[in-house]
Amino acid sequence: MDFSVLRNLISRYCVGEENWLDSRTVYIGQKEPPPGAAAYIPQRYPDNRIVSSKYTFWNFIPKNLFEQFRRIANFYFLVIFLVQLIIDTPTSPVTSGLPLFFVITVTAIKQGYEDWLRHKADCSINECPVDVVQQGKAARTQSHKLRVGDVVVVKEDETFPCDLVLLSSSREDGTCYVTTASLDGESSHKTYYAVPDTKAFRTDREVESLHATIECEQPQPDLYKFVGRINVYKDTEEPVARPLGSENLLLRGATLKNTHHIYAVAIYTGMETKMALNYQSKSQKRSAVEKSMNAFLIVYLCILISKAVINTVLKYAWQWSPDRDEPWYNHRTENERQRPVVIRAFTDFLAFMVLFNYIIPVSMYVTVEMQKFLGSYFITWDEEMFDEELGEGAQVNTSDLNEELGQVEYVFTDKTGTLTENNMEFIECCVDGNVYVPHAICNGQILSAASSIDMIDSSPGGYRREHEDLFFRALCLCHTVQVKEEETVDGIKRGFHQGRPTSFYISSSPDEVALVEGMKRLGYTYLRLKDNYMEILNKDDEIERFELLHVLNFDSVRRRMSVIVKSSSGEYLLFCKGADSSIFPRVVSGKVEQVKARVEQNAVEGLRTLCVAFRRLSPDDYQEACLLLTQAKLALQDREQRLAQAYDAIERDFVLLGATAVEDRLQEKAADTIESLHKAGMKVWVLTGDKMETAAATCYASKLFRRSTQILELTKKRTEEQSLHDVMFELSRTVLRQRSMSGLSVDCLDYGLIIDGATLTAVLKSGPEGNYREVFLEVSRNCSAVLCCRMAPLQKAQIVKLIKASKEHPITLAIGDGANDVSMILEAHVGIGIMGKEGRQAARNSDYAIPKFKHLKKMLLVHGHYYYIRIAELVQYFFYKNVCFIFPQFLFQFFCGFSQQPLYDTAYLTLYNISFTSLPILLYSLVEQHVSMDTLRRDPSLYKDITKNSLLRWPVFLYWTCLGLFDAVVFFFGAYFLFDNTTFTSNGQMFGNWTFGTLVFTVLVFTVTIKLALDTHHWTWINHFVIWGSLLFYVIFSLLWGGIIWPFLNYQRMYYVFMQMLSSGPAWLSIILLITISLLPDIIKKVLCRAMCPTPTERAQSNRQCLTVEPSSIFMLSQSSSRMSF
């Protein structure tokens, strides 16, 4: 018996180099490997079915109900409803059950409809046709039937049905071109490669004969990381192992371009694809308003329990006398007499809880959800936030945080692509201290002939000429730029010059395109990459060919990239370009000081700089480098760490050649936006990976720093001269001294802080000398602006988290356009992505997405302001009108012997929050504009009036509650004193308790509705229709409810009550009088406050000479935009 297979299996399970659980083995074509190979172990993987839906037909009702009753308000009303069913309560179960049923049903319909749309989308994806190679020919099947290991044929312009490893292509070199716009928004064509051992299998039968296995990592969501290796089995040889990386992996959702067809093997399917893993839900963010609502809800719950306890105690105090405990008209049964007092008291307590439970506004949650959902469309409909160049407007990825846009105190922004255009223009290059400046740069197109060169010294010597040629060759070879023939991109033909088709450069990095085009202007033209040979046209119009041996890809940690090439003379060359901080420490010769001086000068001018170096490799050096790279690339575990170690060993002993300078222009109105944010009281922090001088120049240009700003530096350079402890406390003394002086002098200094990534790491670590976090927070808190340079993506998130966790707990906003900004966007209270040139990762992971940085001004100062004002009024108004509603019921118990007699009819109890008072506040919360849009834009300081949740603070909440209590007392006792002298109708009948309750309810409905009308500043015809229509609906309903004999009712206690009340003159007089008295204190308070100590917002309202007659915002936006986004 051959134990080798068993031993191999045991070693891989137990003591192998790779952890078996962390990798998978895929058998290409579902074929077993040849005899003598590794053991065939069938593995179970999910099919290719995509499921984005949340529910199924069978679990929708139980699952949805479970999720809805996890909300405390819904659960509370369910308990009240069950109590009404179980015990004898003063009100019908319908009064609690119907509003709860309405809320649950509306929410379930909304969620069910959204899930049905997801089911529909899933079906269309899962039933897409796919070609699979079976028995030597391509067979058509549906996408959801794909299995891991199936070989798929994908044709040009088709979308990849799952994550695939490229086996071969219709192109001879085994490459294919792919666009990943649906994944990350990058429309440029990316090149993917087949391994050399499989690219020759180019027909169905040849692919069927392929025997190979793929070992790779288990699925994980990183789009740009893939670690694996392919073992190709041949007839008489040992299997050939080749490394697989992200350049071999074709992601689901990407599209094949400029390639007739490819063969690829399914590696991850269904919900294990990287796209599916990336689209899983992010952590839920909660707004400050929602937290305030929950706190207010707890207060009202305590009030409710207190009311029930007080009434229960007073009831038994009232019934202490036998005459009151069991009057002649209400004898108890024998069972009731024998029940223990504790049981009776608890039952009465529950009955009072039911009677007063309407103080908790269950419909408020539905109204808030509808307001957020409908209100979010105002952002997507806003034509001023539509970008013609992109053809897109603002997007709302979550409507739960609309009001948070009006509470922002800190703005954290990226620099490149956010404040700047990320549209690079080559300015100059410096070789050994000599500057080369082309006359002009033509972005996006290679011209037919080179322009002249303007050099400081145009007659270089031999040594300088050699370095000049090496420098230009380095920039022509060290990149990932692709050369494309003429084609149509987004409806625009690219690559035409003077009527003749030519070619143009594309790359995922705008910097690289600018550098290669700059070299073209300086006489060195990159032509193409063909069969692993890079061709360039030199200044003498001679074509030079270099064999591309290895590419050491750029990463944000190393901040450099390198290529190893072999010249036609057989010489091995390593070219490297990267940030000055990553190149200079690895340089052993060259004119470092001259180049460094030029780099620093360019950085001060706000230009982006890169340094270029090279190293000649001997054959032995090259073989050693090959060995290091091959071993690292074949590793399944810790491949990235091993590659980093290999790169570190290879990229050393450089000869410095020179540096380049590229300009990234400031975005339109970026400076105006930052200035407006400052005036609105927000502190703006710039978090960037760029060097300090470049970032500082951009900060000055964008008015983040002014010329009068005193800059405080907390950088590695300064901490090398002094200890971190001394620097921190020196800065602390400076800002604290200035703060103490600011109270004595009007003119106080404006501070700006600059900190780099290395120093931030030291600050965040608690050292033996103390915790510097608090000192850093104290310093930054007293600075108007902060610049954090040389930041890694994780450090950006750490900064945001640090500010969030500070003692003030400020509301933070993060805005960026690239994948490196995603971490801080997810960390901040509000994340905004910019649809930039670095892909759509930021926009996909954000709460809101906007085309340009300038749109942030209107997003916060207008939309955010309105959202907060509207929802704050909605929340306070809901609690106010429910206090007005229930407190008279509490007072009524003192006049009915605490018998739990309801004051209002069941229909009124049920419909008060659902019908009579719901629509006016919903419409108010959608279209109210307390000041005009132009005023908010013109005066950003008005934003300060609403920050720190000012309209939902406890004093404001107590004012609304006290106002509700006052109005309730006026309603009840006003009607009571009217009834004190027994009132008769014209026919001699007396008013009863239901007439009394109806009178109180009528005054209540009219008062709370007119109160909202008085608070409305922006009137449109739809406001009039809804507000006065609601009052008319109440009157008509009451007439119908009390004027018709309803056959389905056993008794009608309200029959003719409303009409009888209206037939009395004193009733009309009391309604008008009580409404006036109820509204008077609030009106007087507002008039006095406006006259004596008006807020900036109230002054802005007073300055409006007349109300602008505007159409309703809803209809204005819906009619004017044909580009609505739903």
Automatic annotation (TrEMBL):
Pfam families: Cation_ATPase, E1-E2_ATPase, PhoLip_ATPase_C, PhoLip_ATPase_N. The gene is ATP11A. Residues 42-96 form the P-type ATPase N-terminal domain. Its cofactor is Mg(2+). It catalyses: ATP + H2O + phospholipidSide 1 = ADP + phosphate + phospholipidSide 2. InterPro entries: ATPase_P-typ_cyto_dom_N, ATPase_P-typ_P_site, ATPase_P-typ_TM_dom_sf, ATPase_P-typ_transduc_dom_A_sf, ATPase_P-type_domA, HAD-like_sf, HAD_sf, P-type_ATPase_IV. Its main location: membrane. GO terms for cellular component: early endosome; endoplasmic reticulum membrane; plasma membrane; recycling endosome. Residues 129-192 form the P-type ATPase A domain. Belongs to the cation transport ATPase (P-type) (TC 3.A.3) family. Type IV subfamily. It is a multi-pass membrane protein. The active site is at D414. This is Phospholipid-transporting ATPase. GO terms for biological process: phospholipid translocation; positive regulation of myotube differentiation. Residues 843-1095 form the P-type ATPase C-terminal domain. GO terms for molecular function: ATP binding; ATP hydrolysis activity; ATPase-coupled intramembrane lipid transporter activity; magnesium ion binding. Its EC number is 7.6.2.1. ATP binds at D414, K415, T416, E512, F554, K577, R608, T688, G689, D690, R790, K796, N820, D821. The chain crosses the membrane at residues 295-318, 349-368, 907-927, 957-979, 991-1014, 1026-1049, 1055-1080. Mg(2+) binds at D414, T416, D817, D821. It is found in: Endomembrane system; Membrane. It comes from Gadus morhua (Atlantic cod). Keywords: ATP-binding, Magnesium, Membrane, Metal-binding, Nucleotide-binding, Translocase, Transmembrane, Transmembrane helix.
